[in-house]
Specification:
Number of strands of chain A: 11
Number of helices of chain A: 10
Low-confidence stretches of chain A: 1-13
Distance between the termini of chain A: 44 Å
Largest interface: A-B, 76 and 75 residues
Order of helices and strands of chain A: HEHEHEHEHEHEHEHEEEHHE
Largest sheet of chain A: 6 strands, mixed
Oligomer: homodimer
Radius of gyration of chain A: 20 Å
C-alpha cells in the first residue's frame, strides 16, 4: 500500500487529478476481499459498484459517495459509456475513485474496456485483482479446479452466448480439462447437449452453484446428462449460476458434505 | 473416491480436536491475501507453508510455529504423505493449523489431495480461496484474461508435463480462448511449436511473466513465434514463469506501460 501512494503522487503529474482503482470484490463475502481492496475502499471518495456487490462490502467504504451502476430491481444497467464518463469526471475533479466489481475485474468484468477508456482520457488507473467467482464458487463447494490424476487444466467460459462457448466446448477433448461456465444457467441444456455430442460421457459429474460465499449459497450435484434438469427450488430463476463439469466434481460430496454446508447456513439441492 | 471416507466422523466436534485451514496466499504481495486469510494466520498456532510464500506473508502469523514444507535452496520438497501426517498430528494435538499455499489452494496446489487426506483422518478442514497467480500475474501486467471482442474464455493449464497441456493446446481452435500456462517456462518452445502446428498464427501476441505482485516482477512481451526466445536477463533460470498467449496480450502495452512498471519497481524485458 505504500506503493499505492507513491504511484498516486507520481502519476498525478497534474496536481488535483484524481485516480481510479479497479477493485475486485471477490465472490460475495466481505472477508474475501483482499487487504489491498479494503484499503482502497477505505480511502475512496467515490465508489461505482455493480449490482452483485454485497451490502457488507459497500460498508467498507463508509465515507464514499456510492453509486450503483449495475442492473438492479429489473431496471437496466447503466450504459458502459456512461460508466466511463462518470469515472473520468470524478477523477478530473480530483476524487479518489473505486470501481468495484464482483469477482475479478478482468474475468468477464469489462475491466479492460474501462481501463482503456481511462487511459485514453489520461486518468491514472490501477487494478486490484480479486478472488474470481469462477474458482471460489467451486472451491467453497468442495470442488478443486485441478486435482492430480483427475484434471491438470481448467477452462473458464461465459455461457451468455453460444458464439463464445460453442467453439471451445465442442472441440475440447472429453476429460482434457475441468469446464467452468459463468452465466451459464440459461444455456445448461444446450451446453450439456453439445458436450455429449462432442463425446463427453453423460455420466461425467456436473454441478450448478448459486451464490457461492454468500448466505444464500445453493449447490446442485448431478451429471452432464442430468444437467438440463438442474434447479434449486429456493433460488430465483435469474440468479447467476456457475456450472462445473468434470471428474473433480465427484470430490464435492467428500470435501464439502451437504450437512457441513447446511451448518454454514448454506443449503444443497441434490 | 467418495467411498473411501466416512463423512460422519469429520463433523465430530470431538473436544480437543484441532482443525486445518487451507489458505491461498495469493500471487505474492502480503496485501493481496484476503481478510479471511489474514485472520486465519493471526489465529494459527502452526503454519505449514510452501517455498513461494513471501516472508512478509509469514509475518502475518507471528505467534505460530512455522514450517517450510516446500522445495527450498535446492533441497527437495517434503513428501506429500509427510505433509499430510504433519498436519494430522498437529490437529490431533488440538492445534489450529494453517496450510499456506501460493495463489489458490485448488489451482495446481494439491489442495484437494490434502483435504482428502484430512477428511480420511477425521480432521475438520476448510478452504480459504486465494487470488490465483494464473489471473493476477496477467492482470498486474496489464493483461485481462477476457476482453469483449478479443476473448470470451480462458484456459489455464500446467506446463509441467506435455501429457497435461498437449491434448488441450493442440485441439484448441486458434483464438477460441486466452491461454495461460503455469510452470510453463521450460516448455515454452514445445508449446509454441505445438500451437503453431495447430494453426495459431505465429503473430499471436504472447507474454512471459515472472514474480507478479512481488518486487522482482519481470515481463517479456512478444509473439507466439518468438516465445521460445523469451527471457529476462535478471531472472534466475528456475524462477517460475507464467505464459499468456492470445490477442488480449496486445493490451499490455496500453494498460500497463513499461515505464509504469519500472516506477513500481518492476522491470520489463521487451
Amino acid at each position: 500500500v505504500s506503493g499505492e501512494i507513491s504511484v498516486a503522487s507520481r502519476q498525478s503529474g497534474r496536481p488535483g487529478l484524481g485516480r481510479v482503482t479497479l477493485v475486485g470484490a471477490g465472490p460475495g463475502a466481505a472477508d474475501l476481499l483482499t487487504v489491498r481492496a479494503v484499503r482502497a475502499l477505505e480511502q475512496a471518495q467515490v465508489v461505482f459498484y455493480d449490482a452483485l456487490v454485497s451490502r457488507e462490502t459497500l460498508e467498507l467504504a463508509p465515507r464514499a459517495q456510492r453509486f450503483c451502476v449495475g442492473k438492479r430491481a429489473g431496471r437496466p444497467s447503466t450504459r458502459q459509456e456512461t460508466i466511463h464518463a462518470l469515472m473520468i469526471r470524478a477523477a478530473r475533479r480530483g476524487r479518489r475513485v473505486v470501481r468495484l466489481k464482483g469477482g475479478d475485474p478482468f474475468v468477464f468484468g469489462r475491466g479492460g474496456e474501462e481501463m482503456l477508456a481511462l487511459a485514453s482520457a489520461g486518468v491514472p488507473c490501477e487494478v486490484v485483482p480479486g478472488v474470481s467467482s469462477a474458482l471460489a464458487a467451486p472451491a467453497l463447494s468442495g470442488i478443486p479446479a485441478t486435482h492430480r490424476s483427475l484434471s491438470a487444466a481448467f477452462v473458464v467460459v461465459s455461457g451468455h452466448a453460444e458464439t463464445a462457448w460453442g467453439p471451445l466446448l465442442t472441440t475440447l477433448p472429453p476429460g482434457a480439462a475441468t469446464v467452468i461456465v459463468l452465466m451459464g444457467l440459461g444455456a445448461r441444456g444446450a451446453i450439456s447437449a453439445a458436450m455429449v455430442q462432442a463425446g463427453w460421457p453423460r455420466s461425467t459429474p456436473a454441478a450448478v452453484l448459486w451464490g457461492a460465499a454468500t448466505a444464500v449459497a445453493r449447490r446442485w450435484l448431478g451429471t452432464l446428462g442430468t444437467l438440463p434438469e438442474a434447479q434449486a427450488s429456493s433460488v430465483t430463476q435469474d440468479a447467476p449460476g456457475t456450472l462445473v463439469i468434470g471428474e473433480v466434481v465427484a470430490l464435492a460430496a467428500v470435501l464439502a458434505p451437504a450437512d457441513e454446508l447446511e451448518e454454514r447456513g448454506e443449503a444443497h439441492a441434490c
